[in-house]
């Protein structure tokens, strides 16, 4: 009589080895979560603005930006994107695909292409009367990093523009 061999057979030593491998993988993932750096958002400000071609519906600008790094490690920037709202209306979008490094606790400058619809935004603002005093603005975006565990750092700023 011929004995049939089982197709799948569990080896007694395979179960503890698999459990140990799973535990090691979980421990590695937990360690990665612990060493993932917590980065403070960078601060961006405008250095200069050059006007490009424009019409009533869109203004194309080349904006020189300064980025300040409040962190104690360098930021290898791969690109920056943002949107700007003025008084609740989207007024501009910008991007830069320039690669540069912002030193730890330092700053760097870069150029950003900006497409704005300032005329449309101003028309909507003035439709309810001439605004006076201050107007709220909101800028939000992401700094994309070239390497590291954390690949993008969001930033957001709110403030007021004074009308004169």
Notes on the structure:
The chain has 164 residues and is of the alpha+beta class. It has a single domain (43-162), classed as Immunoglobulin-like. The chain contains two helices and eight strands, in the order αββββββαββ. The chain has helices spanning 14-35, 118-126; strands at 43-54, 59-68, 75-86, 89-96, 100-102, 107-116, 134-145, 152-162. Strands 1, 2, 3, 4, 5, 6, 7 and 8 form an eight-stranded antiparallel β-sheet that branches. A hairpin with a 2-residue loop joins strand 3 (75-86) and strand 4 (89-96). The longest helix has 22 residues, at 14-35. The protein is elongated, with a radius of gyration of 26 Å.
- Amount of beta strand: over 45%
Question: Rounded to an integer, what's the Rg over CA atoms?
Answer: 26 Å
Order of helices and strands: HEEEEEEHEE
Which descriptor suits the 3D outline?
A: elongated
Q: Assign the structural class, choosing from mainly alpha, mainly beta, alpha/beta, alpha+beta, or little secondary structure.
A: alpha+beta
The CATH architecture assignment turns out to be Sandwich
């Amino acid at each position: 009589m011929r004995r049939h061999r089982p197709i799948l057979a569990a080896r007694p030593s395979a179960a503890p080895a698999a459990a140990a491998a799973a535990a090691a993988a979980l421990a590695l993932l937990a360690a990665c979560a612990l060493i993932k750096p917590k980065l403070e958002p960078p601060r961006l400000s405008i250095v200069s603005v050059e006007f490009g071609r424009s019409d009533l519906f869109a203004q194309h600008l080349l904006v020189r930006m300064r980025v300040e790094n409040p962190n104690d490690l360098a930021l290898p920037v791969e690109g920056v994107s943002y949107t700007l709202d003025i008084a609740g209306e989207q007024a501009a979008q910008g991007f830069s695909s320039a690669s540069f490094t912002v030193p730890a606790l330092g700053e760097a400058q870069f150029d950003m292409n900006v497409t704005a619809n300032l005329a449309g935004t101003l028309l909507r603002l003035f439709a309810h009367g001439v605004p006076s005093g201050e107007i709220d603005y909101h800028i939000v975006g992401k700094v994309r990093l070239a390497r590291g565990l954390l690949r993008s750092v969001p930033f957001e700023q709110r403030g007021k523009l004074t009308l004169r």
